[in-house]
Design goal:
The chain has 218 residues and is mainly alpha-helical. It has one domain (4-208): Heme Oxygenase, Chain A (Up-down Bundle), CATH 1.20.910. It has ten helices and no strands. The chain has helices at 4-11, 13-20, 23-29, 35-62, 77-88, 100-113, 117-131, 134-145, 164-176, 182-209. The longest helix has 28 residues, at 35-62.
């Protein structure tokens, strides 16, 4: 790859690797986190995606240069709500309680992603391209580990995207075509690095709440 998409990938490679290898996520995939920990992560994601998808609606209404990224096929909120209903039951909304790191994450989105195209695209890139890459693997692993089958892991499936690889290629093409001057591209890169850090902080806090000596899920 070349162009801005390649630059963004290189600039966030370290942060991406750190987020992927956080102890909480590696333990989650092998059953070292109780089912309640997986449910708590799903609740944190719902808080983040509600804010991010509200920002997507704001960008679309404003017709900004970020509007092309706000694809309804990516929407995760309905899937997350369905997952939580399966994991917690009919009163699932009462369990959607943010940890401190999630509050900081959502506040950052609320403050910047609704009005700034470069901030929105940075967070959109970190979340959705990750979901279409490693997230698919995590979903399969978690479904098997926690015996969930097709229920409780809708977040990790994209039924409206037939070919994730082709979708990601087209997405990177949109990144390369962004009509931003250098300083706005610099802002986007810095915000993407921050987005990874915010995401990692959520994993780190959940790792403290559900430590490594937790009873395996299997």
């Amino acid at each position: 790859m070349s162009g801005f998409a390649a630059r963004l990938r290189r600039a966030t490679m370290t942060e991406h690797r750190e987020a992927e290898t956080r102890g909480f996520i590696t333990r989650l995939m092998t059953g070292g986190v109780p089912r309640t920990g997986f449910a708590a992560l799903t609740a944190q994601y719902l808080i983040v995606y509600r804010e991010l998808e509200a920002a997507a609606a704001s960008q679309s209404r404003a017709g900004t240069s970020a509007a092309d990224f706000a694809d309804p096929a990516l929407s995760r909120v309905p899937a997350l709500e369905a997952d939580l209903a399966h994991l917690y039951g009919p009163d699932s909304e009462t369990f959607v309680v943010p940890v401190a790191a999630t509050i900081r994450y959502a506040e950052r989105l609320r403050a910047h992603a609704h009005t700034s195209p470069e901030h929105f695209i940075a967070h959109h890139y970190v979340r959705y391209l990750g979901d279409l890459s490693g997230g698919l693997l995590v979903g399969r692993s978690v479904a098997a580990t926690y015996g969930l089958g097709d229920e409780g892991v809708s977040f990790y499936r994209f039924p409206l995207i037939d070919n994730p690889k082709a979708y990601k290629t087209a997405y990177r093409g949109r990144l390369d075509a962004l009509p931003f001057p250098a300083e706005r591209l610099d802002t986007l890169v810095a915000e993407a690095q921050l987005a990874f850090a915010l995401n990692s902080a959520v994993f780190q806090e959940l790792g403290v709440i559900y430590p490594g000596d937790a009873v395996p899920a299997a």
